[in-house]
Amino acid sequence: MPHxxxxxxxxxxxxxxxAIEDAGLAEPLAAALVEAGLPLIEITxxxxxxxxxxxxxxxxxxxxxxxxxxxxxERQIAASLDAGAQMIVTPGTPLALAEALAGCGVPVMPGCAxxxxxxxxxxxxFNALKFFPAEASxxxxxxxxxxxxxxxxxxxxxxxxxxxxxxxxxxxxxxxCVGGTWITPKAALQARDFAAIGRLAREAAGLKxx
Length: 210
Ligand code: 3PG
What we know:
alpha/beta, TIM Barrel, about 45% helix, carbohydrate metabolism, 6-stranded parallel beta sheet, EC 4.1.2.14, binds 3-phosphoglyceric acid, 11 helices
């Protein structure tokens, strides 16, 4: 895996995954997450506010690493980079998207959920992969099993990961970190309850990585 991606993933055991409806929340939210020890922040391109939210984090929150998530096509790669995303994550990775990502110029964690997908991505040079949807696809047992034939790959399992089951993932040698939405509950975001989000983030940041 490229050195810069390894260094990024080593910065926190958990990547908060956020669907943000109001870009105005992005700056205080990211500041709370960074302060709590979670500098990598995945903002999913599932809402109209997402690109503006990435832009706000990139511009105004020192120490934050804004990640564009749910990148589904080549057009969204360009839009993410233009907004200031410092990393790109996909939930799954068809070949055309993977090829475009391979030359995009920032660290990338493409998504996969099967050995064949992981192998195809590895052939393109991607060795740190999002495993999604983790719980529905086999969870820690899948990750343990794939370490046999594909020991050079590391994963960020996401999808169904919680504070309760994250330690089972983080104990595995081929898990670099985990991702999840539990740190930023919708109700807390809507209420602008950054203190509550900060508490959840501190708990997550305290989880033990490899
Ligand atoms: C993602 O895109 O990574 C997932 O939607 C996160 O899923 P979760 O809500 O189960 O954490």
